[in-house]
Design brief:
Helix content is 29%, strand content 17%. The chain is of the alpha/beta class. Helix 6 links the parallel strand 4 and strand 5 (194-200). It starts with a helix and ends in a 15-residue tail after the last helix.
């Protein structure tokens, strides 16, 4: 038998990714080059984005988590399901941070069935708690893609035409056990304008690829845990709206929050979002009151169940606005082309040691690669332009009454 250390195989985990343990020298130059390649790939993805594209700002997304026996494999440590749940917790937080007026729901598929864990809602804490509870449940049987899609379609078909309808499938199984023809379900999703995307954990599956192609979704297969995280981040930003998406004015209400013990004379009552749930949650005198029908809710954004008015807060609407007016890409320059010997990044105030430097054409400030990515992926506003008295490309929202 060959030496395990020489072959790179171990009987406990079947295989090891030995290339991840390579180190060029003591300074770690190989690891630095890999990190630089990943950063530049993210910047190329940013430059590939096309401007002036209609986006679905009010998103309704169902996440389908495969909990078949294949998710118990340990090629992702400690297992596929635990790694997926951990990354999905971070994805839910990032999703609502970038899309505060959107909603999300969670479905699971195992034993050839599909179960709804959480309904569509805008409270990230409730979804994260549901994901954490799934870690204690076993992965059993086979996955049923058709049952999962049909269950998601039952809710998404009733969403308004101006909203974005999406499904994201996290699949580790190589098979799916469906009760009928899956192509009929795919055709129904296509007619209902539901965008389906799949992130595979094992290998490329033809039915998943056909589903994504028919619904204008994205199909990707992960390489490792870090690649899995990057693929999830690609689904944080709103997708381009299709030609079938309606354009209409949306009537919104901005309720005031009433606190218990204040000057308000509101009596304790049950909020509308907890009427159909067991337990004492939602009972009290504080909450958000609909300005049209005075119904009480404990979370925003939400659609009023009594009058149908969309209830949001002004900060939610303002944070959703930056997707429509992102800062323009910075221009890449060589440090040798500049008249400055030791340029300093305007963002982190550190000296730029890389041969490339990035300049905002509006404020003419210089940035390093990390600050360039942070500005366009997280901050969504140029620090140099924002520090001026008036920012040329910073959107100005009208006052919300």
């Amino acid at each position: 038998m060959a030496d395990d250390e020489q072959t790179g195989y171990r009987w406990e985990t079947e295989y090891e990714k030995t290339w991840e343990a390579l180190v060029e020298d003591e300074s770690g130059s190989l690891q630095a080059s890999i990190t630089d390649l990943v950063s530049r790939a993210k910047r190329r993805h940013l430059l590939d984005k096309v401007g002036n594209v209609r986006l679905g700002m009010m998103r309704h997304l169902f996440i389908i988590v495969d909990m078949s026996s294949a998710m118990a494999d340990q090629d992702l440590k400690p297992s596929r399901i635990l790694t997926s749940l951990k990354l999905l917790e971070g994805y839910v937080e990032e999703y609502f941070d970038q899309n505060p007026i959107s909603q999300l729901g969670i479905l699971v598929s195992r034993n050839k069935r599909a179960d709804k864990i959480t309904e569509l809602g805008g409270n990230p804490r409730r979804h994260i708690t549901a994901l954490q509870s799934l870690a204690d449940k076993p992965c059993q049987g086979e996955m049923s893609l058709q049952n999962s899609l049909e269950l998601a379609l039952q809710t998404l078909r009733h969403m308004p035409g101006h909203a974005s309808r999406e499904v994201l499938v996290i699949a580790g199984s190589l098979t799916t056990c469906d009760p009928a023809d899956i192509h009929t379900t795919i055709k129904s999703l296509q007619e209902m304008n539901v965008r389906c995307s799949v992130i595979g954990l094992s290998a490329e599956i033809r039915v998943f690829k056909k589903l994504c192609q028919a619904t204008n979704g994205q199909y990707s297969v992960i390489l490792d845990e870090s690649h899995f995280k990057d693929l999830l981040k690609q689904h944080v930003s709103p997708p381009p709206a299709t030609t079938n998406t309606e354009s209409s004015l949306i009537k919104m209400g901005f309720p005031h929050h009433s606190l218990a013990g204040g000057n308000s004379e509101e009596k304790a009552s049950m909020c509308m979002c907890h009427l159909d749930r067991t337990g004492g949650q939602g009972f009290g005198s504080n909450g958000y009151f609909c300005p049209q029908c005075k119904s009480k809710y404990c979370e925003l954004p939400i659609e009023c169940k009594a009058c149908g008015l969309t209830l949001v807060s002004a900060p939610h609407l303002a944070r959703s606005y930056h997707h429509l007016f992102p800062p323009p890409p910075f221009t890449e320059l060589l440090v040798s082309e500049l008249a400055i010997e030791s340029p300093v990044c305007f963002g982190c105030q550190a000296e730029i040691v890389e041969p490339q430097v990035y300049r905002c054409e509006e404020c003419r400030q210089l940035f390093c690669l990390d600050c360039d990515l942070f500005t366009h992926h997280t901050l969504h506003s140029c620090p140099g332009c924002a520090s001026k008295t008036s920012a040329p490309h910073t959107p100005r929202l009208p006052p919300v009454s």
